[in-house]
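User: Hi! I'm working on a homework problem where we have to compare a predicted structure to a textbook description. Could you give me the structure for the chain below?
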Amino acid sequence: MLFNSIDFWMFLPAVLVIYWVIPPSARAFRNGFLLLASYAFYAYWDIRFLGLILLSTSVDYTAGWFMAREQDARRRKAALITSIVVNLSILGYFKYSNFFLDSLISLLQSAGIEVGIATLDIVLPIGISFYTFQSMSYTIDVFRRKTEATTDPLVFALYVAFFPQLMAGPIERSSKLIPQLEVAKAWDSGRFASGFRLFLLGMVKKVVVSNKLLAYAELQYMNPELRSLEEAWAMAALRFFILLMDFSGYSDMAIGIARMLGVELSENFRGVFKAKNFREFWQRWHITLGRWFKDYVMVPMNRSRLPKGAVILVSFTLIGLWHGASWNFVVWGLLIGILWWAERRSSWIEPIAKLLPGTFLQERFQTVVFYALFLWICQLFPTENIHDAWTLMRAMIGMESPQSLGAFQPFTAAMWCAILLGGSIEWAQLRWTPWRTAGTPRLKAAMAIVQSLVLIPMAMLLCFEALWVSNEFEYFLF
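Assistant: Happy to help. Predicted structure tokens:
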């Protein structure tokens, strides 16, 4: 069930009404209802894969329960390894079986060995990368004694399957989400209204901005022979902007829905276009995934005294592989790791930027150079193979001569309006809360009036008009 669908817009009000009608004193009943709603939300896509969530939940709850009561280090480690092996086996089979099988077949064929192995007919369960990492982080934290194991299986099951962030994050930590699920929540109209506004904002990003631009990009993106050098860069920037509006829009909706239910989720995006280097980018883009890999992959490898460069390269290669089962994503992650490591070693952009007058110009120069490199690398992201990606990358550096200049379709007025709207949202989202909290009483009153009488009604009209075309969120693929 997609957030941007008529079905969900009927599902959500029913869940909210029933949830808040149940009295706070009946917390277990509330959680039970919310868990059933979360399972129904996921089963609406394909009920067969609900069993995978139940399996991960059962294994990780049992492992956490055992480790909380066991003092023997070897037994606790065995429970942790069992949890990790089960989770990664499920993820590996459904997401990576055909990738490794195809790679093996290609390797053998390149050596002149013909094999009669066929690829497997496997459907990738939506959101499996997200809820697997979230569930697995719980057992790791219990093993490290960084969080207490919950004794309530209902709460843990809801922690794994909480429907606002089940499909595409944010990837929550048990230390943040479980305590919120263990307490009774009183109705708070201010929090509910704040959640609704954020949900509506995310919906605008998705259905008004991203969907409007995606229809154009799908026609033009894989035709580098139709574009000039400037048009190639424009398409690369547009494709990234679509992904930003799509994924940050989903995160805003997820955080907004959870807030309407009295739960605060983690921020997942923060001023992406202010990033000046690869390190800062990952502190602003998909923040919860970056933190997950830092805490559960990079920190343990650093403790093993591996060279810093090796830790960075392995971590980002795994981040690439997390995004998708293809060599495109592996190479994408590896290249980002190389550039991160190069930045860490030399900080080569800053000395050049300091030749410019003023901090503002220096920072903007760093941002432009970073995004030029990043957008070029990101041609690996939406393509099916490295050859297609390299064709797009060649077009961006003038190595792919356009065969039919003038065939490239220019942006329409509606597209420019969508780009302007998305850019305005991205700019204002960083500043709206500080304005409301630090502004004068007159400014706060004016903002409240504009928000209530202009922005919210306009957003609702735009969303309802676009809801009849429900495109999937791009990060569902991962």
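For your comparison, note the following. The chain has two domains: 25-184, 191-396. Residues 432 and 447 are 9 Å apart (CA to CA). Good luck with the assignment!
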